[in-house]
Amino acid sequence: MSSALKLALNRQMDRLGGGDGPFATAVDGLYLMRATDATLPAPRIYRPALCIVAQGAKQVMLGESTFNYREGQALVIGLELPVLGRVVQASAEQPFLGLNLDLDVQVMRDVLAQLDPPPRPGPDASGVFVGHLGEALSDCVLRLLRLLDTPEAIPVIQPGIMREICYWLLTGPNAGEVCKIALPNGPTERIAGAIHQLREDITRAVRIDALAAAANMSPSTFHQHFKTLTSMTPLQYQKQLRLLEARRLMLAGEANASGAAYQVGYESASQFSREYARMFGTPPKRDVAVARLSPAI
134 and 43 in one domain? Predict the structure, then answer.
């Protein structure tokens, strides 16, 4: 991995306050990360994103699947997914350094439309994959980081860099996977629409026939595509959405455990506590107390 990228990450995080933790930046959708020790699994919902490790290593767990990526590698997430992520390699001498960059599907679609010939979609696979960053993408990310030094230039220059990032993703060794994010009316877009419906009202019972109809698929085909892309069933997906929202409510001080359970659609507080502990590894009250002391990276 380029030492210039590591230096740029450290410099920008020092400017933003220094220390460990995630850092929001002036570039919309760009978050920088540093950790001087391994971290506990932290839940969050990812949008389509490019997640890069410049130093150290990270692990992301999605349903029944686990993805490990390290220095010089990137995790690409193709649709909105609830995951557990943790830093697995970091020290004070060599801290974990990374960044997450949200991807604009419409920009990717515009770039895809200009490619001749366009990439051929690969076989059905998870909506998440790990690949090597490559020199061209690394250079784009470095220029994006340096752009933070000139905030007034961001609105003018950032769109071009983002289009270039999309170009290299769509013409690189994983183009067959990346292009599925942007294919109009493809399985990824249709499942993304179903996910949007699930997120609109997480308290509503899951109806596979209605979701399948919205995705213009038969129930069996819908279930197969959903499980392939997300590594979980629609019911499991909704359960994770509910538990993540309940955790957010408790962390924000907007509800206690029983109140959060009912707000997200649980009828039984004891069932909520059992499923919460199964997902997060500890009961709600204890988990929230620990989470308030450690930043999610």
Answer: yes
Domain identity same for 51 and 113: yes
CA distance 112 to 106: 10
Q: Work out how many domains the chain is built from and give that number.
A: 3
The H or E element containing residue 194 is helix 187-200
Supply the pLDDT for residue 259.
Answer: 95
Same domain for 93 and 225, yes or no, is no
> What is the three-class DSSP state of 265?
coil
Identify the DSSP state of 152.
G
Strand ranges in the chain using DSSP code E only, listed in sequence order: 21-24, 30-35, 42-46, 49-55, 57-62, 65-70, 73-77, 81-89, 96-102, 128-132
DSSP β-ladder status, 73-77 and 65-70: unpaired
Q: Which domain holds residue 78?
A: 3-180
Helix/strand/coil for 100: strand
Q: Which residues of the chain are modeled with pLDDT < 70?
A: 1, 295-297
What SS3 state is found at 59?
A: strand
Does some domain include residue 267?
yes
What was the pLDDT predicted at 290? 86
Please state, in angstroms and rounded to a whole number, the distance separating the CA atoms of residues 110 and 7: 33
Q: Name the residue among 82, 1, 71 with its Cα closest to residue 47.
A: 82
DSSP code at position 206: P
DSSP state of 221: H
pLDDT single digits (tens) 114-145: 999 999 988 877 889 999 999 999 999 999 99
Nearest to 175 by CA among 106, 120, 109: 120
d(C-alpha 58, C-alpha 90), whole Å:
9
Placement of tokens 């970091």 in the chain: 90
pTM over 0.85, yes/no:
yes
Which residues contact residue 131 at a Cβ distance below 8 angstroms, ignoring those fewer than 6 apart? Answer: 73, 74, 76, 172, 173, 174
Give bridge partners of residue 129 from the DSSP assignment: 76
